[in-house]
Design brief:
Radius of gyration: 20 Å
Strand order of the largest sheet: 3-4-6-7-8-9-10-11
CATH topology of the largest domain: TIM Barrel
Helix content: 40-55%
Shape: globular
Strand content: 5-15%
Oligomer: single chain
CATH class of the largest domain: Alpha Beta
Number of domains: 2
Largest sheet: 8 strands, parallel, barrel
């Protein structure tokens, strides 16, 4: 699959852009674990052109994680064009426009999925950004605003006419947020449209290697984007690509999974500081499947998520790895 001149390979598996999740460290780990392409956290066009430090830091990418896309969002043409030019100077492989974020503070102000209520403005922004940069421009969006306005098949054509090089479709409407099931049949309809010639990337509810394989084989998409299932589990990309390309499931040792989590913790602390770095990583620890099957884990989980120093956190992790998990295996 190619996005413009960027060759991502056949049936690529991609790390979705996620706010407060896909920082540089996490992207690189996912890349090492098998992700074919990564996306930054989304970047506010307004904050970027105001040179807000926390926003400009999101533009840092390393050659080791390429190909990488930087994703921007906004609701006005001028700031989006100016932000796109700033992003181009950061030298990502691809520039992605977010027309899919459903959260109120974004969509409620007309940006992200809020653009699904103003298609002419969405197309105007897209056309202007495409014309402003030499990078391949892509779009990530949803099926429509609500169940009565699933416009994605027609919208994908309109965005293609604006010059985008690929489209990612999350199989929910904005009104669904992240509830219910992603509608992959609707994503397939986008792909089956004979007038659409750009790659179609599917997104939503890809939580296992088996679901990933089904997305390619049953729905015919060109690529698949994995989001929430990777939080606290970057090794999922190795599991997925092993089944997809080798036809085999892979068992990743628990010790290796703990090692990856410890690396995330360490690099988060190095990037920020001890206290805020641990705060940042709590979302990964809370979501990690490593801890979800442990009976009676709630008190330990609370202790883990309340830890405010590396020593406190390491004490809990070591106890889980060296005492709690082995005792469960011995009882089996």
């Amino acid at each position: 699959m190619k996005i413009g001149t960027v060759d991502i390979g056949e049936n690529p598996v991609m790390l979705a852009p996620m706010e407060d999740v896909t920082d540089a460290s996490f992207r690189l780990i996912c890349k090492e674990q098998g992700a074919d392409m990564t996306y930054t956290e989304f970047v506010s066009a307004d904050a970027l052109i105001r040179n807000i430090a926390a926003t400009t830091r999101k533009l840092h990418i390393s050659d080791a994680e390429r190909p990488t896309a930087i994703q921007i969002y906004g609701r006005e043409v001028g700031p989006m064009v100016e932000a796109a030019r700033i992003v181009e100077e950061a030298r990502p492989d691809i520039l992605d426009i977010n027309f899919g974020c459903p959260v109120k503070k974004v969509a409620g102000k007309g940006a992200g999925a809020g653009m699904l209520r103003d298609i002419p403005k969405m197309l105007e922004i897209t056309r202007a950004v495409v014309d402003a940069v030499k990078l391949p421009v892509t779009v990530k969006t949803r099926l429509g605003w609500d169940c009565n306005s699933k416009i994605i098949v027609t919208l994908a054509e309109q965005l293609q006419d604006c010059g985008i090089q690929a489209i990612t479709v999350h199989g929910r409407t904005r009104s669904q947020m992240y509830t219910g099931e992603a509608d992959w049949e609707e994503i397939a309809r986008v792909k089956e449209n004979p007038r659409l010639h750009i790659p179609v990337i599917g997104n939503g509810d890809i939580t296992t290697p088996e679901k990933l394989v089904e997305a390619f084989r049953r729905y015919g998409v060109d690529g698949v984007m994995v989001g929430r299932a990777s939080i606290g589990a970057p090794w999922i990309f190795r599991e997925m690509t092993s089944l997809l390309r080798g036809g085999e499931t892979v068992e990743i040792p628990v010790s290796e999974k703990f090692s990856l989590l410890r690396r995330q913790i360490r690099e988060s602390i190095e990037r920020i500081d001890e206290y805020r770095g641990i705060l940042h990583i709590r979302r990964h620890l809370a979501a990690s499947p490593l801890f979800k099957s442990i009976p009676g884990f709630r008190p330990t989980r609370i202790q883990m998520l309340k830890a405010s120093t590396l020593d406190e956190l390491e004490e809990v992790l070591s106890r889980v790895e060296n005492e709690i998990l082995p005792s469960l295996e011995n009882n089996d």
